[in-house]
From TrEMBL:
GO terms for cellular component: cytosol. Its main location: cytoplasm. It comes from Rodentibacter genomosp. 1. GO terms for biological process: gluconeogenesis; glyceraldehyde-3-phosphate biosynthetic process; glycerol catabolic process; glycolytic process. It is found in: Cytoplasm. The active site is at H96, E168. Keywords: Cytoplasm, Gluconeogenesis, Glycolysis, Isomerase. CDD domains: TIM. It catalyses: D-glyceraldehyde 3-phosphate = dihydroxyacetone phosphate. This is Triosephosphate isomerase.
């Protein structure tokens, strides 16, 4: 089956009110003719209101960079699925290596976030990937399988229906080092195959993005690979022309 590619921008801890409005206006004009690729942006949660307003009338979908497992109550500083829905956010990033590393989020905790998002009707964008040491030790597939299985063991393989996986080798995030298209495809094929051992139907439809120093120069080659269904873009998503090149490359490669 043909999977519709998804290119999503993870703005991380960047931007302010005026930057948010200006970048979205520029993205709207740059991406005006695109209809063969889903596009989403995940600004900092502080700016979801500006983003929601600025995106009116556009095809670009809104996302967020994190969510908590609790819906309401005495959880100071946390953000619920219902709050994200209130601002029209749809694609929610969980399990990013920066959250796993700096906030000590475990596979089990991330699986709970996945469950909370599914229950709320939101789309989890589950980030998985290995460190440089794990890569060099030949443990890439083992790490990816463990991170996926934490969700399957808790929720069943059907949880990946309508979900997104972002394979982000940690050694390639923000380093300027990207996996080669062949390296990335090999891991993507493994991920899809791993899910297929539980359900071929779920594996066939799950969107598997690549993330890790994706830019306007390397995107087209990555998207020619059969199991790479788009990208989770960091730094390049903060520049409308560069992000637009990536989106259009996905549209061209997959249609």
């Amino acid at each position: 089956m043909a999977r519709r590619p998804l290119v999503m921008g993870n703005w991380k801890l960047n931007g302010d009110k005026s930057f948010t409005k200006e970048l979205i206006e520029n993205l709207k004009s740059e991406l005006a003719g695109v209809n063969g690729c889903d596009v989403a942006i995940a600004p900092p949660v502080m700016y979801l209101a500006e983003a929601e307003t600025s995106l009116i009338g556009s095809q670009i979908l809104l996302g967020a960079q994190n969510v908590d497992v609790n819906v309401k109550g005495a959880f100071t500083g946390d953000i619920s699925t219902e709050m994200l829905k209130d601002f029209g956010a749809k694609y929610i990033i969980i399990g990013h290596s920066e959250r796993r590393t700096y906030h000590k989020e475990s596979d089990e905790f991330i699986a709970k976030k996945f469950a909370a998002l599914k229950e709320a009707g939101l789309v989890p964008v589950l980030c998985i990937g290995e460190s440089e040491a794990e890569n060099e030790a030949g443990k890439t597939e083992e790490v990816c399988a463990r991170q996926i299985d934490s969700v399957i063991n808790a929720l069943g393989v059907e949880a990946f229906n309508g979900a997104v996986i972002a394979y982000e080798p940690i050694w390639a995030i923000g380093t300027g080092k990207s996996a080669t298209p062949e390296q990335a495809q090999s891991v993507h094929a493994f991920i899809r195959g791993h899910i297929a051992t539980k359900s071929q139907a779920v594996a066939d439809q799950v969107i598997i993005q690549y993330g890790g120093s994706v830019n306007d120069a390397n995107a087209a080659e990555l998207f020619t690979q059969p199991d790479i269904d788009g990208a989770l873009v960091g730094g390049a998503s903060l520049k409308a022309p560069a992000f637009a090149v990536i989106v259009k490359a996905a549209e061209a490669a997959k249609n």
